[in-house]
Amino acid sequence: MTKKSIPSPEELYKRARDIKPVLESRAEETANLRRLPDETIKDFKDLGFFRILQPARWDGYEMDPIVFYKVTGIIAEACMTSAWVFSVVAVHNWQISVYDEKAQQEVWGDDSSVLISSSYAPKGIAKPEGDGYRVSGEWDWSSGSDHCDWFFGGAVLDPTVGFESFVTLLIPREDYEIIDNWHVYGLKGTGSKRIKVHDAFVPNYRIHYLKDAFVSESPGNKTNPGPLYKLPFGQVFTHSVAIPSLGAYKGALESFIDGAKSRISSFGVEAKSNPVTSALIAEVTLEIDQMWNTLEANFKVMMEAVNNSEKIDINDRIKFRHQVGVINDRCVAGALKLVKASGGASVYLGHDVMNKFIDIMTTQVHVANISDPFAIDYGSSILGGETENLML
């Protein structure tokens, strides 16, 4: 891929904005399918979105991650379900890039558009065998799995040392079964189904240690030496499961504003002349801007460090991880205010603000969006304490 064929960030943002009406028009179909329509995945591929974090040597754009997160946010303004699948699948194009070169070749050697789904919970039972492990297990929440040819599954290889041996196993489609158990209240169309593996062999080169990702010294850094791949996994991945909520929060605000322009309460009060409504819009707008400004500032710090071949300060990593960890909490609380201010109309099926609130709330149960442990880490670091959390 030549440099000229790589779109600018602004062009990618425009592409994301332009497809918003299409995603909105497919929302009902997506919910009914309980997975993304094939057309949506094709659109994301054709628009180059999956290549944003992909290495240039694998036909990718190898861009600053904030471009990836901004595209995710724009998509989520229209359809959080689509943004969630895109974000958590596309971020795997970053992770496979820090795997052993042989694993990269297996995934992308014939087709650099091949996608990977995941479930990082340590559900895999792995027993040493030869130059790898014999693996069985069942993992839930593998979003977008219908559209993927490979799977990342979490496992602890040696329970006696715990998370020191926490790994991600790379498993091909022929070695696992997709079980359709995705019947849910929110994010209905993500197809986050169960993956079942029985007695599959996973060679060592298809295993990535979280401890290596923590110190940014992974096998793939030899063949993909760019600064992007020196970022910690805990930062890159956890932002991918937080940004969809932030984008949906903005989308809920936009829908609320559109409705407020013509809404009249049961008492005959126009929403647009109600100072409470105006103040809420200002409050939510400010909050969204503040979160985006914080994210951009944090990634600027991290990218400056890796661009200069420096380690990112651990206290910064702790702070940044806490700040992204509370995004979902803030989006849930803010979107609920918009629901309440929308009045009785919000209880009817199809109400966009309510739909987005339910989707945002659904992601609050994702382990990466549970903020308490990271608040403890951050507070402890301010007090001079140390942390051993590998997801920073």
Structure description:
This protein is α+β, with helices and mostly antiparallel strands and 392 residues long. It has 3 domains: 3-97, Acyl-CoA dehydrogenase/oxidase, N-terminal domain (Butyryl-Coa Dehydrogenase, subunit A, domain 1, Orthogonal Bundle); 115-220, Butyryl-CoA Dehydrogenase, subunit A, domain 2 (Beta Barrel), CATH 2.40.110; 241-382, Butyryl-CoA Dehydrogenase, subunit A, domain 3 (Up-down Bundle), CATH 1.20.140. Helix content is 47%, strand content 15%. It is built from 15 helices and 7 strands. It has helices at residues 9-25, 27-33, 38-46, 65-78, 80-90, 92-95, 101-108, 210-214, 233-240, 243-260, 275-307, 314-325, 327-342, 352-363, 372-382; strands spanning 116-129, 132-142, 150-156, 166-172, 176-179, 193-203, 207-209. It has a 7-stranded mixed beta sheet with strand order 5-6-2-1-3-4-7. The longest helix is centred in the C-terminal third of the chain and has 33 residues, at 275-307. The radius of gyration is 21 Å and the shape is globular. The mean pLDDT is 95.
The average pLDDT is 95
- CATH fold type of the largest domain: Butyryl-CoA Dehydrogenase, subunit A, domain 3
Structural class, judged by helices and strands? alpha+beta
Report helical residue fraction: 40-55%
Cα-to-Cα separation, first versus last residue: 33 Å
The CATH top-level class label of the largest domain: Mainly Alpha
Unreliable segments (pLDDT under 50, ≥5 consecutive)? none
Shape: globular
β-sheet strand percentage? 5-15%
* Strand order across the largest sheet: 5-6-2-1-3-4-7
